[in-house]
Structure formats: C-alpha cells, structure tokens
C-alpha cells in the first residue's frame, strides 16, 4: 500500500543512519515526496538536498552535543507554520556475541546507539511536532525472537519495542503516532558485511519466498508506517515469512 500524500515543504523527516542501507533508501523516498530531510549519522547522507547533522550516536556526551546541533537544524527547518515531522530511528550497530560471554562495555555502547540515542532524540524532536507527526522505530525480527551469537543486538532490538510501546502511551492526547518496523534479512552493508551474492544465498533460503528484502522495500514500509496513524503502537514485521527451525 503506497500512500500518496500531498507534497509539502513544511513536512520534515528526521532520519538517523541515512548514510547507508535502509536509512538512505528512506531519505530518498521522503525527499521524492517533497519533504525536507534532516539526516543524522557519522558519515553524510549522499543525497542532494538533505541537511546533514553529523553526529556519533555513541558519543558519551550525546545529550549535550546532539541536542544542540539538532535543535538548531530543526529551528531552521520549522521556520514555516506547520510542523509535521516524521522521526525515523533507523541507525543501529550489530555485534556477534554470546549471552554467556557478554562484554559489558560492548553491550552498553551498542545499547546507546540502538536504544538510548532514540530516547535522547525524542526529547529534542517531540516539542517541535504538531498533530499528524510520527515516530518510527526500526526493530528487527530479533525484536521478538533470538538466534545464537547475537545477544547484545537481540537485547537492544527487544528494548526498541519496549521503547516504542512506552512512547505510544506517553504520547497520548497529542495525535502523534508511533510504530516499530521489524525487517527480516535486508541486503545492506550491515547484513552483507563483505559477503558475495553466493554467500548471501543461505539468508534467502530462510524465507518462504526464498528472497531477502531490498532496502527500498523496507523504506516503503517505513513510509507507510510514518503516514498511517491507525498503526499507532503496532509492531510491523516484514520478512517474507521467516522459516522456523
Ligand atoms: N540489514 C538487515 O538485514 C537488517 C535486518 C533487521 C533490522 N535491520 C535494522 O535496519 C536498520 C538499518 O540498518 P541497515 O541494514 O541499513 O545497516 P547499514 O547500512 O549498516 O546502516 C546503518 C546506519 O546506522 C548508522 N550508525 C551506526 N552507528 C552509528 C553511530 N555511532 N552514530 C550515528 N549513526 C550510526 C550508520 O551511519 P554512519 O556509519 O555513517 O554513522 C548507517 O547509516 C538498523 O536499525 C538495523 O538494525 C537491518
């Protein structure tokens, strides 16, 4: 379902991790629909017209550094009367580790990017939001299940669903909606990690359609989630039917 919304320069998308993969495809979609796009990551988003706020979401003084840069960018972007904002929490880090041998420092750092940074950004962005705005979290199939050797990532993606549900309750009365989009295997640098097409084949074999998602397909689902208030509080899985073993 592709929703055709009117082009509106007063609508603003704030997207983390738009320098690569799903975030980049999402930024492209919002730009094409006429939205202003503010992108937050360490590397810039390469799309013309995007306003980059370069930031390391793992920085220890995140609240102070990010808050100031983003606040200033939002003040400029929100110069017009309307403030319809789609905040997309997409940036994340992935780690292979075991629940039996967790390194606490690694876990904390990963949680900061995958969970805590989203909460910090909510505090900055929500005051700018008018009714009709949205907060979309990007979770994972690992938001509801676990596979071996992905402990920190799995913990963080379960927490993302908890943060989305808490956000939903704490936004009551504002007519701002929130969802968590949970992709399965997506062909991005995070999953590829240098793999050839041949080495990617086993991931396809784990889905009922024998295929992995393209970032553009997930971007379309994020777009729909961000523009469909009826989905408020929903966890939306997109994985072509992952085969259970
Ligand atoms: N690919 C999959 O199979 C898959 C499956 C399920 C869920 N997901 C989720 O989809 C989302 C997007 O991932 P992707 O697959 O598109 O991966 P990706 O291509 O590796 O993109 C990850 C993005 O996160 C940003 N990021 C990472 N660490 C950051 C930091 N410290 N500060 C700021 N930005 C940071 C990166 O930007 P910089 O490096 O420029 O900072 C990059 O733009 C993630 O939430 C991921 O967990 C992916």
Structure in a nutshell:
It contains 7 helices and 7 strands, in the order E-H-E-E-H-E-H-E-H-E-H-H-H-E.
Describe the overall structure.
The protein is α/β, with parallel strands linked by helices and 245 residues long. The chain is built from 7 helices and 7 strands, in the order βαββαβαβαβαααβ. Strands 3-2-1-4-5-6-7 form a 7-stranded parallel β-sheet, with helices on both faces. α1 crosses α7. The structure holds NADP nicotinamide-adenine-dinucleotide phosphate. NADP nicotinamide-adenine-dinucleotide phosphate binds next to α1 and α5.
Give me the side-by-side strand order of the main sheet. 3-2-1-4-5-6-7
pLDDT < 50 runs, ≥5 residues: 1-7
Helix percentage range: 25-40%
Bound molecules: NADP nicotinamide-adenine-dinucleotide phosphate
Number of strands: 7
What number is the mean pLDDT?
A: 93
Topology readout:
Layout: E1 11-16, H1 21-32, E2 36-41, E3 51-54, H2 62-77, E4 84-89, H3 104-125, E5 134-138, H4 151-170, E6 177-183, H5 189-192, H6 197-204, H7 215-226, E7 234-238
Parallel strand pairs: 1-2, 1-4, 2-3, 4-5, 5-6, 6-7
The protein binds NADP nicotinamide-adenine-dinucleotide phosphate.
